[in-house]
Every structure is written in C-alpha cells, then in structure tokens.
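anyone seen this seq b4? input:
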Amino acid sequence: MIIQITQVGVILSAMVAAAQAMPHCPQQVSSTLATGNWHKVVLSLILLWAIEAAVVNPLALEGCDDHCGNVSIPYPFGTKEGCYLNETFRITCNTTYNPPLAFLDPWIKLAKFPISDTKNKFTVIGCDTSAVMSSFEGGSYSTGCISLCNRNESVIEGSCSGIGCCQTDIPKGVKALNISLNSYYHHQKVWDFNPCSYAFVAEVGTYNFSVQDLRDFRNRTMKTPVVLNWAIGDQNCSEAKKDLKSYVCTSKDNRTVCHDSENRPGYWCSCSKGFEGNPYLPDGCQDIDECQNATLSLCVQKCTNYNGSYECSCEPGYEGDGKSDGTGCKPKHSTLLVKVALGVTISLLVLLLGISWVHLGLRKRKFIKLKEKCFEQNGGILLQQQLSRHNGSVETTQIFTAEELKKATNNYHENRILGQGGQGTVYKGILPDNRVVAIKKSKILDQSQVEQFINEFLLLVYEFVTNGNLFEHIHNTSHASMLPWPLRLQIAVETAGALSYLHFATSIPIIHRDIKSTNILLDDKYTAKVSDFGASRLVPLDQSQLTTLVQGTLGYLDPEYFHSSQLTEKSDVYSFGVLLAELLTGKKALSFDRPDKERNLAIYFVSSMNENRLFEILDQQVLKEGNVEQLKEIAMLTKRCLKLKGEERPTMKEVAMELEGLKAMEKHPWMKRNLGSEETENLPGKSYDDCFGGVNSDSVCYDSIRNQVIISGLDDGR
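predicted toks r here
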C-alpha cells in the first residue's frame, strides 16, 4: 500500500481488493481495517500547498530531512525525534530499500487518522454479490450494497450502478471497519465470467470499473487509494489559540490562517492570501511576488510588489487603474480637451445646483402643505379638540416632536421594545432630563381607526411603570407572596376609583372596554394604574349606550355586550367583577386547564356563591389574612357586578364607594372581631361620598384618582 499526505488528508493505496468470495473459497469472507491490524505501510508524501513552495521555501524544520527517497516529508510530519510535531506525525524512513521508503511506524493509528467520508467510496465488484461494511467491534454503523447480473453483456463499462459493480458512501467518523462479502448462489450461475467477488474502500475517482474486472480483478496491476483525514490536536481554532505554546499556526505578521477541521476534532493551517509555503513552520509562509508571474498579476503596464499583495499603475502619459479586468491604461487626452471638458462640467454643476435649489424650495413648500394635510387626515384636529377638553388648552399638554421621540428611543431600536400589538408598538424612552417614559408608536393605516388611536393619544408619552402588571403578581408563583390581602384590596379600590373617574368625572365619559389584570399596572409603591385605552370609546353626553363592533378579552367580556353589541358603562362593571374574582380566588379569568364547570371564573364564582361554597374557592392567602365578614361583603359585591343583565349591576361609582368603605372599616379594631356588627355601620373618618358627590365633581379626590389612569402597552403593545 502507498500513502500520500496532503494538507487535509492521508491517502493509502492498496494493491489488492480487501476481500473476495468464490465457490471454492468460504461463502462469506471478512476483512478488517483497524488500529494495529495493518503492518508498516509504504509512505509517499506530497505537499500540495503551493507548486513552487517545494523548490523555494523550506518544508521541514531546520536540521531535519525533508525527503525520504523520492517522497517529500513536510512538517508537522518528520522522520527523526524533534523533527515532527508529536508521535502522531512520526514517519519511519527505511534506508534498506533503494531508494529509501517511508513508513508510518509501527501502525496506522486510525484514532488519529479516520477514513474520510467525503473523499472515499465503498466499492463492490461481482454479479452474485452483497457486501457490508460495519464497525470493527459491532459498533453503531453498517452500510453496504448489492451487485447483480445474469450475463456479461448486461454489464455497462465504467458504471457502478449495481450491475456488476456498486458503490456507496462511507459513514462519517469511521475509525475502524469490517468488510463482509456474501455470494447468493456460490457464483454457479455466473462462473464463466465472474468466479469471484471483491470489495474495498477507495478514493473517489481513482477506480474506474471495467467489465474485465469481473473475470480477473486480482491479477490486475493497479492501486486503490484510501484517503484518511488528519488535523492538529483535538481543539478548534478559538480554543487552540488560548495556548500559544502548543498552537502551530503562528507564522509572523499574521501570514497564516487557522481553519476548523470539518470532519473530525482539531484544526489545520494555510498561508494567507498573497503568501505561500509551509504554514506549520515558524517562518514558513513567504510573500508571493505576483509581479514575477504573469499568471498571478492583473497589471498591464507597471507592477509594484508589496508584502502579501501588489499594485498596478500606468506609465507616464497613460491613465487608468492599470488592471486587465478594470479600466486598464489609456493615453491621456490633450490639455485643451481637458479644459473644455472641465468648463462644461462646471457649467453643468452650477446649472444642476440652481435647479436643485429651486426643486428643494418647491419640495419644502409641498412638504409643509402635505404635513398640514396629514395632520388633518390623521386626527390632528380631533387631537386638538381632545386636548382642549382635557386640559382647557392645547398649550398645557407637552407635545414631543418626532425627532425628540426618535432620540429618546435610540431610533426606535429593537432592544427598547416593551410590547407590540395590532394598533402600535410601545418603546422605553429616556428623555433629556433622564426621566424614563414609555412611548407608543401607532401602526394604524386604516383611517377608520384614527379616532380609536386618538382616544389614548392624550398620554402617549407616559410614566414608566416599574412593577409590571397585576396578572404577573397574581398568577406568577414567584410574585404571589408579594400581594397580601390588604394590598389586593387596595389595588381593587384604586382601580375602581380610576374607572369611576373615567365614567363620571371626565368632560366626556370614557368606557375602557378592556379591563383585565394585565392592564392594571403597578408602580414601585404598588399603586394601581389603569392602562391600555386602545379599545376605549368616548360616550357623547346625550347617549347612555353605543353600538360598536365587539372588542375585549374572553373571560372578561360582558355577555350582554357580546350578544347585543350595545356598549354601556356597565360593561366595564362586569369586567371589574371578574377582576375582583381574580383577586379573591387567585385563579385566571379563563383557563382550559381547569374542569369544564370551572373554566370560566365568572360563572364558577357565581355558582359557588349560590351553593354557599365561597370559602372553598378563595385563595389560601386571602383566607388567612382577610376578615370573614369583609370577604363575604366583597364577594357579594363581586356577584352583583357579574349579573348577566347590565341594569342589575351597580355603577362604578357605587362599587368604588362600597370598596372604599370596606377598606376604611379595616382600620378599626372591632373590624377584626366582627365586620357585620352594628358597631361598624357609622365609622368615623372621611366619607367616600365626598369624592363621588356628583357627575361633575371637581374635588381633590378625583385629582388623585386621575393620576391612576395611564396609557400603556406593556401587555400587548396596543
């Protein structure tokens, strides 16, 4: 066998087939290729890195032989101690032959030199033959092919498609293999032209099948090479570079490039572009003088060589880049022509500048008009009206320019996105005074949706709420312990107050239409903030209900509104009732993981109340921390909010007053003993009627509640 070592592989050349079977031989013959099973193998080393490198640049370390007979031996291979990288690359040069022959001594170590799966094929020859290549010790792979034919005339010369000859791929990472041959009929039917079967591993393209091989393949004088992969070490480039003492791609001036081995652990080196030689030697990569080789240079006139590159230029009187694939070198034009061309060019430039100036002026005027038109089409007038109603004048509300918002969001960078939805995207913004705000950018293209977006345009740049939403704190176990019952009751009171403010204290009543735990945000002091007004509607003062397309979230959606499309303030009351049930039970509004009768929290809560099973469904923390009578009162209020008919539900003002009263009674000692006793009927302290004395109340209570109404898209980005 002969072996060639290339930059990425070792090629073994076998003189005979690996196994054979015939009638007078065993029916099944096996041949094994494994560590220690091949004796010393003749070695032929060929360096393929550069054609001229073998002549000009050194192949081996200083003082080491770079040949064994007619075979080149480049480093990291070597024949003497100190001349090879490690024992894996040791070559034995046997001088008893003439010329001397190179051997891998004592054995081919396949753990270091696995068979290449991309450069070899498993080949089988025969007309009554099946062959299998498998792991040496019954391992994890097995592959093979079948070759059949009835007569010599049916075999196609040069074809290994299964008629007389077949081939198949080598599994990846093979380090040892066992070849087994079988003959179905002992070659009796094809004896006259194919008495034997053959199977072997060979380099792709080195064996060409001949019909004559069926009769007498063994006596042919031929070689069937096998390619083995090799690489340095068992680390990739990034890992190997950490230990510069063992790293071998270290030619000076970064003249070498490291490549990760594709088919086994380790890496290999090559010279950088513009250099040639042995990249494994400390100074093995030398500059290529492209100017001395016309096939390497693109220059048509002058060529200047640099370290690792070259430069083309033109002789005096010529112009161009000097390259054959570029503008080349052309004679320069006369001075007069240059002056005329220069004058014409300057005149054209002046003319173009004048036209551009006029064009820019016209575009600016057109842009101003277009800006005014867009402002009107996209709800600008409606915005001014809303701002005027809300604050008395437009000037009292801070309006940011597009550039200011762009700067605050780092040009709307992806890492600033807090949430996304159908109507817009919410970004985290940082103002020049270092205030952190949330900024909502509309994605609306439908003109019919402009009013809906304007509903929440009043506070599109708003306070950044740091403690997430109520849903996370109720249903996330890591937050659950952070919401004791008094805090849950406080959140309910603040949310009810905010909704009452929207219904009764604004100049035009607002129905939120999407009250849910994810839209209740909590600041650093756990103050509740009602958010996400993307679905909200303004209710004209002369109307008590609106007919709209149904919007909302399943589990919170008012069933009366769902069936009739008639939106009223009582729709928010129903959604708030579901929110109260969430706070009491700790259960989600809608969950398909629960039994059928428990999936809808509102229905389950009401039925449990009717069956006198309230304390069976309450959250354990609520039961532990809450007062029995207080919990009963709040549960009854929740049940009233969840009435199917809107007219039977209380208003948000009544709900807020009742919750505030229950919370105020909590401060008195007798509340802990018996919330239902007559002593609690007239408690000292501020009455909630002061805050909800009338629809147009201007009291300070509403001013504080108003601060709890914000716009947010942290949940779904609307």
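Residues 289-347 form one domain. Residues 335-377 form the longest helix (43 residues). kinda curious what u guys think
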